[in-house]
Amino acid sequence: MTALKLVPHLVAFFGMATVALRGATRRGMLAGAALAGFLGGAGLAATLTGSVPGEFTYSLLRALLALPFLLLCAVSFAALYLSVGGKLPLARLERVAGWPLTRTLGLLVASAGAGAVAGTRLGGALPLWGWGALAAAAACLALAALLLESRLPATLTTSRAGFIALTVALLLFSASWSTRLDLFAPLTMKVMKFTHDFVHQFFESMLIPDHLFIHSYLWGYIGLLFGKEVGFWGGLVIWFTPVVMVLLAIRLERLPSVGHLRQGAQRRRMLAEAIRARRLRLVLPGIAVLLLAYAVYRSLYPSVEYWDPKPVPVTANAGGEIFLPRKGEIDLMDGKLHKFLYQQGGKTARFFVLLAPSGKLTVDLDACAICKPDGYGQAEGTVLCYYCKTLIPLETVGKPGGCNPVPVEFTEKDDGIHLNGVTLINTWSGTVQSTTRTMEKGK
């Protein structure tokens, strides 16, 4: 099973190496840099994941994976601007980008990123012979990249923007196979939160909720801005815009001037060759679009099966206290998320109990103070908000803020968990129900 987990990351490494070798002079040095980067990144990430507890390694790697995407955004804007006749003082930068050493360092860093993503999935658990097998597999893929690139048609060229687009897409494709490194879901959540906060603050500052000219049917349209769909569509726009701009930049490239050629056949041949070369340069960013689309699919439909037990009804004693034993029909100390349902006076509250990595139990609502109360599921090292698909590290469950489950006051004794039913109902009503009403009304 461990070997199968590494297949997507090895594929990404193979793609990076193959594309980087296209048109290169020192191909052996490039293949060696790719191999060294992949193995170095995998070893470092596996060591950090196995030795440093918590979310540190994943948070660091997510931040590092976001940097190439930001670089692609800048490159795509510059490429599109230049393709329509714009001028930028980039002559020196262009010369630096064309150096073999620059390409080698870029491939080294990109391969290290793919290796680091693979290393987080190993978690330091790979034996010595396993590392040897991984090194052998990566070496074979580097050699295969050399052989494949030498057999590709010479007309299949790429622009620097296209090369960067495909390399970044391969990195994001590799990251999408790990739910804790997926970047699309956090992007949609940030877009959704920014939209919600901006519209809410705009309404409050302009006193729009009390404006006489805002009719009730308009709130139906305004309410669309408070749904989770705004985060999804906004995330898609941001996700695909850089690659689409690279495609446009290549498509808008000016054809060579043929006015100095007297023979019509020669002019037509030169133009036809230029058009064919331009179309071939669209291949790499086109593949990048497909890889980014698959990363979105992986984000929306991860292969991870989340532990989501059916809530167990509980009751309170005459004093209004709910008691949950540590061990009984349900073992609260087994590390799994256990959901419960409490009803009082026609009101219902849903909550869960979870053993935190610190060894202490935590009691939280099965909802947060931001999203609709769709609840949470548990996977390895995280819980997932089903509404906005945000991953919450287990280390932060029980702490208020953001999309974290809302903590509930409780008392932990030797026999189990004690919590007040009235407090539970009030906590649910004060956070979840008010959030639901606000989002439904679009205010």
Automatic annotation (TrEMBL):
Domain of life per record: Bacteria
Keyword match Chloroplast: no
The keyword Transmembrane is assigned to this record: yes
Domain Membrane iron-sulfur containing protein FtrD-like: 333-424
TM spans (from-to): 6-23, 30-48, 60-84, 105-122, 128-148, 160-179, 230-252, 279-297
Keywords: Membrane, Transmembrane, Transmembrane helix
Species the sequence originates in: Geomonas silvestris
Name this protein carries in UniProt: Membrane iron-sulfur containing protein FtrD-like domain-containing protein
InterPro entries hit by this protein: FtrD-like
